[in-house]
Amino acid sequence: MRSRSFPFLILVPIACWYVVFLVWPVINSFRTSFYEWNVIDPSFSPFIGLRNYIELLNDHVFIKSFWNTIIYVFLKTAIGVPLSLAVAVLLMRLKRGRDLHLFFIFLPAVCAVAAMSVLFRWLYQPTFGLFNTILKMLGLPPQGFLSDPAQAIYAIVATDIWQGLGYGTVIFLAGLMDIPVDFEEAAKIDGATGWQSFFKVTLPLLGNVTLFVVVTTLIGAFQVFDRIAVMTNQGGPGTSSYVIAYFIYRYGIFHMRVGYATAAAVIMFFMIIGLTLLQMRALKPRWRY
Amino acid sequence: MGFFLSTKIAHNGKTRLWDVIWQLVAILISLSMVIPFLWMFLSSFKSATEIIQIPLTFFPRKFTLATYQELLDKLDFGRYFLNSVIVSTATTLLILFTSSLAGFVFAKYRFRWKEVYFLLILSSMMIPFAVIVIPLYMLVSNLGWIDTYAGLIVPMCVSAFGIFLMRQFMEGIPDALLEAARIDGASDWWIYYRVILPLSKSAASALGIFSFMWSWNNLFWPLMVTMSPEMRTLTLGVATLQWEYGVRYDAVITGAAIATIPVIIVYAFARRNFIQGLTLTGLKY
Q1: Among the four A154, B20, B38, B49, which has the fewest Cβ within 10 Å?
Q2: How many structural domains compose chain A?
Q3: Which residue of B has its CA nearest to A22?
């Protein structure tokens, strides 16, 4: 007999876990953001209304974190996604060695961001790093990379694009393989060039897959933390590579300004909700094919 | 240029030329992925002085395991490794257990508000970890779990993504199989253990591999929840090495190599599962 209680026997403990380790922390983030939270004795935490938020909007470090996050998410998605699609199309064309190439291209994606950040920090090292050595060999001026406030965040997102390339490639490749050959054949018979058939036939058919890759890439890039924590000295040089997740960590843990940090967390929460709604609206017509 | 050259050859030859060009491009891309790793592994065998020498050497002039030894002896990288194994294994097993059970219930049972519950679980995937990290830290410290395995494992042991994946997969298992077992008087647990689990092996192994990798590579939470060096995971150990011994390039590079080797070994043996896992999730979205 199908027992009626079984689903609840399973779901009640899981629901409890969700309430304790997810819902409660989210509610607490909202609550503490209205207090000047006292870490040593929380009962001495004065309610200050929206003052944390007002201070945030006037805090140049937070504004910097905000824009850096936007730049980071934009570059990671706008460059990373088309690049992985291009690589997937390239791999589709290959007559041999596809699996081996895929193995190498996906390799960085399975490794820890922290370990790869350590590696790139060394490659970016201005005096004896590999990149500047190559630039010098080519007769080009050496760059500051991570030590240059104007370059740091771009140098960091570049490593993310490198490491994440294989993730999008694998998904796009699977999507491309799912498209029946007839469609492209038909386009060819109708006289479409390679580019036309790609943009008019293949790409629309990939809509669903593209949506998935874009959404997961956006959400992932939005949360960037490890790279900043490992590749920079406390978001430096200065505050030039702060992002929101790192801001929350620095202020909440190091400066012990819990209320202030959770106010930033609440802003991050609404940013991601806005981003999701925006995506749903922009991409909905292509949801199914 | 390619087209210009190829016009003189027959159609067949033209495609062959492009095959070569695409192959070369693919090789270049693969090399750009592999060279940083090669550089890291080769350099981990160099001495502390050779690694910062100008001009750079590609192959170590003298192979030495001194840095490995130093990290394992003085900095307890063996302990970090053990911690990572314990935490990642426990987290993965718990995620597999909870995801397969919840996936089973969502796929094969009917009850009120089912889709609402499911949607609530799904929407939790969207919440960035940084949003909850500080209250979660306060909660775990109130529970007295700072610097414990429980603190490292329990807050990470349910995965919305896992529940979603298992449900998607289990919906494909024919109801007739379950009904047959039920007529024979099988209990829910028996069906779960004897019918559902064996048939979900491919999804479960994909989820298992991803959970393990994710847990192994996680930095943010171990950084929050551990205080003493003995509780550090390998990934956190590498990050801490960078923060504390940043100028010792030989040490940090060797640390990164130590943290990366186990992942690459698992990947080399189970790459089908990695790739299948991604496609399972990506296409059934």
Answers
A1: B49
A2: 1
A3: B132
